[in-house]
Amino acid sequence: PVPSPSGLIAPGDPSSSGAPQDQPPETEEDRRGTDAGSGRTAGPGQSSSPVSGYGTSDPVFSSARLQAAVAAVDRALYLDGEVLDEATLRQILPAETGTSGEVTFDPPVCAELAVSESVEAVQSAALAGLAYGVPGEAPTVLNVAAYGDGSILDTLGFIDEAVLSDCADVRMSRDGTTVTVTNTRLEISTTAEETLALDTRVSGAAGQTRLVAVSARTGSVRVVVSIPAPQDPEGAAREAAVLIDAVLTELGVAVL
User: Which pLDDT belongs to residue 41?
Assistant: First the structure.
């Protein structure tokens, strides 16, 4: 992974696409959940447990509910994508925090920003995703995560901003090969409470690759869309915003 918005899987990794998953059925419990903390009725698949304690509460949405929302967006936008369930995503996630000692970063602080907090953060989250695009090419990947404790997203937001302040330009070296990673902010808005879009370019002896990643957070829900090799970075960011808005609307948490 390279320093970029804290997504759930390596951006643009073709292995991120899993087998198509059917939309999980909504249970009667999902439909009737009640929020114990405020007395309000919870939405389909929304946890009825009050949020308390770092990493100890159930996510506000179940993975089944997130997967159903992603599947609905896939159908509504005619993406013909592959819905990624939580089990598939966890097979792709790094098993440990930190980076390999074989890779060096300049500046060194960027090594910790690359994976540590973002990997730890998703261990207790509910997850779902979507991969779509042209067969044989790296797919566009949407990831959505719901957390029991929204405070961890404050940390991830800090990491995202640190990418721009401390790691806008990074050199990564391994086995005598060096690549330069450049991160630039793109101006984009969504119906989330917070949005950050980055245009990330990776240059090295083998050539240059590019990735647009847009991360958005509302409450304890985070959505990240990664679009590889965009011809028009601003247009890619707008495409990502459409996906993010659709997911948040489907979950009933869009800020209108």
Answer: 31
Which residues lie across from 95 on neighbouring strands?
none
Q: What is the pLDDT of residues 197-219, one digit of tens each?
A: 999 999 999 899 999 999 999 99
- Per-residue DSSP letter, 13: -
Per-residue b or e along 34-59, where b marks 16 or more CB atoms closer than 10 Å to that residue's CB:
ebeeeeeebbbbbbebebeeeeebbb
Query: What is the Cα–Cα distance from 27 to 225, expressed in whole angstroms?
Result: 28
Show the beta-strand stretches assigned E in the chain.
82-84, 104-106, 126-132, 140-146, 169-174, 177-186, 194-204, 207-218, 221-228
Show the DSSP H helices in the chain as ranges.
Answer: 28-32, 63-76, 86-92, 109-121, 151-166, 233-251
Strand order in the sheet with 126-132: 82-84, 126-132, 140-146, 221-228, 207-218, 194-204, 177-186, 169-174, 104-106
Cα Dmax for the chain: 60
The one-character DSSP state at 255 is -
Residues of the chain scoring pLDDT < 50: 1-56
